[in-house]
Amino acid sequence: MPIELTRLNGQAAPLEDAALQAFRGAFKGAVLTAADPAYEEVRKLWNAMVDRRPGLIARCTGTADVVQAVRFARQHQLLLTVRGGGHNIAGLAVADGALMVDMSLLRGVWVDPAAGTARAQAGCTLADVDRETQLHGLAAVLGFVSATGIAGLTVGGGFGYLSRRFGWTCDTLQSMEVVTAEGQVVRASAQENADLFWALRGGSGNFGIVTSFEYRLFPVGPEILGGAVAWRGADTAQVLEAWREFSASAPRELTTVAVLRIAPPAPWLPKEIHGQPIVAIFACYSGKPEEGEALLAPLRKLGQPVADIITRRPYTQMQSLLDATQPKGRRYYWKSHYLPAVTRQAAELAATHAAQLPSPFSAILLFQIGGALNELPAGHSPVGNRDAAYVLNIAASWEHAQDDAANVAWARTAFRAMQPCSTGGTYINFLTEEEGADRIAAAYGRANLSKLTELKQKWDPDNLLRHNKPVA
Ligand SMILES: Cc1cc2nc3c(=O)[nH]c(=O)nc-3n(C[C@H](O)[C@H](O)[C@H](O)COP(=O)(O)OP(=O)(O)OC[C@H]3O[C@@H](n4cnc5c(N)ncnc54)[C@H](O)[C@@H]3O)c2cc1C
User: Domain 3-102, CATH 3.40.50.970 — does that match?
Assistant: First the structure.
């Protein structure tokens, strides 16, 4: 029986067996259909709200497989999606009936300690890269949750504990190997295909399939000072008032994240707090630990913390401290703003909406990112938002479909209420499925979006790479 695949025109049409056999012959990795036992696991993404069934999954083993997959998609006009770490909130990596180009087996990392760079294949998670670079006391600028894919994170911008010092993840890129929408292998860097290099530093998956990233590395770790301090929810106003001033004057070596949520049953929190509202500040000081200890002392002495796990610890441990709060397979819905500062109004609104959480897994998070990224011009790369100092993420998370409406409504209400505190910008990687043209424009800014639209015409005029947040 020929399988039905979704074509670029949106229609489903059968694919002849002979065509599938020819593709399998040219492709080294496994090509999965719904009949294969591995299909279910690979199609499922981090967000269980996304439940789509690709027609074929091409499990790439190298760049040559990516080229074959692109050529096959072009030849048969197939809707194509690209899967990295599968963490995109909008589920961009999967579409019903599409050819999913699965990069997740490509996990090689090569560190050049003398040059201070690492090349990582596009299926790596953040943990894969940190593990190898930390052998040399070096780190790339990556995100806060270690199972996230480097690919989606980097092509959308990327921020984490080191962004205040070194900028967006994509600001630290040296080069990329890319399979273009024509199926050609090219290098993109400041010297070669500089326009493609520009577009892929924030313009997301619209311009080509990156097979490897070369990152600039920085001396960090292997030990840093970091962890978290938590207080009872009743202390939220006092803690946020102190934190907003504390963080505004903190040096760039220190990144803090405020988290407002219900205490999970985590071993670092006392049992009597489990299930109760808390406010926690996660902190990572990547300079000399003794300097960080002095710096963090006033925060740790604030009020009456219920837990304090700030200590000298491996950087890789810090990079996975939030992992348990974000398991694969729960239902998630996010709304997000960039903030120019945490004003008293923003802190009060965050506290008000955190007090109305409909789920024990949801949270309001405020990530401090201001620093190096503010120093480059707005058009340095499409990720833009060079006026952002904090990221607000209203992160709804719950378990059962019958609770979808209540959780989505909570996130939307908090998002609308906090709109006056926003720079007007937002993060392309945090946009949910229904967020369209106006939010994409807010993520890039008009000038960057207009340049991206022109470059889309050059690098993907047929719009093969369309299952993205579109720029044209
Ligand atoms: C729990 C969690 C924590 C997060 N924390 C952070 C954080 O700290 N900092 C941060 O900046 N972001 C963070 N994010 C957001 C994250 O950057 C995006 O979700 C990103 O899309 C994830 O990349 P992925 O490869 O896992 O995604 P996937 O879902 O696999 O891919 C998403 C999209 O990225 C594009 N893409 C993937 N691979 C390639 C490729 N090889 N070439 C070209 N395009 C490609 C495609 O458009 C694809 O559809 C987090 C997300 C989650 C779920």
Answer: no
